[in-house]
Amino acid sequence: MQNAPSVAYPVGRFSWPSRFALVGLALLGGVNVIGLAFVWPADGGLSLVLLLGVGWGLWLWGAGRQAILCPAGTLRWDAQAMGEGWAPGAGRWWWQEEGRAQPMPVCHLERRLDWGRGMLVRGRTEGGTRWFWLSASLAESRWGELRRAVEAQANTG
């Protein structure tokens, strides 16, 4: 998937499809913990189930907090980007946060979750690791281009 087109894609704070995905994960995890409580032997197994439940709850709290605090802006793939240390024509991601004057380069954008109409991707910027919830509903006409760009970057670097 080399030669993906350049694309600028809006990143929202936390879209409704992403909320449904997070709620679905929460319900699935809760059902699993409850199921373990009934299946696991009563001698010492219940404490492990409680520990798993607390761990799942903490993960869910952290994921929800991160999703809500996720910044809004524009994620841009420049297919023709060239610069020091970059392969010519390899392409480059840029992050333009709302309210910031200059875009930041994003190193190694990687897809962590993909459910067809949405993606959770992680990238490294000069400000640290950033998580981006991407939803097709924010720019339907550019969703395919964005997906091709994420795939192209994954194949080149």
Please give a structural write-up.
It is a single chain. This protein is of the alpha+beta class and about 160 residues long. Helices cover about 40% and strands about 30% of the residues. It has three helices and six strands, in the order E-H-H-E-E-E-E-E-H. The protein has a six-stranded antiparallel β-sheet, covered by helices on one side. A hairpin with a 3-residue loop joins strand 4 (about 105-115) and strand 5 (about 120-125). Helix 1 (about 15-40) runs antiparallel to helix 2. It is elongated and about 60 Å long. The protein starts with 6 loop residues before the first strand and ends with a helix. The mean pLDDT is about 75.
Helices and strands, in order, run as EHHEEEEEH
Task: Say what the CATH topology of the largest domain is.
Answer: PH-domain like
Secondary structure: helix percent:
40-55%
Shape: elongated
- What would the average pLDDT be, to the nearest integer? 77
Give the number of DSSP strands: 6
- Assess the beta-strand content as a share of residues: 25-35%
End-to-end C-alpha gap: 12 Å
User: What is the domain tally?
Assistant: 2
CATH architectural label of the largest domain: Roll
- Contiguous uncertain segments of 5+ residues: none
Name the strands of the widest sheet in spatial order: 1-2-3-4-5-6
User: Structural class from helices and strands?
Assistant: alpha+beta
CATH class of the largest domain: Mainly Beta
Q: Note the main sheet.
A: 6 strands, antiparallel
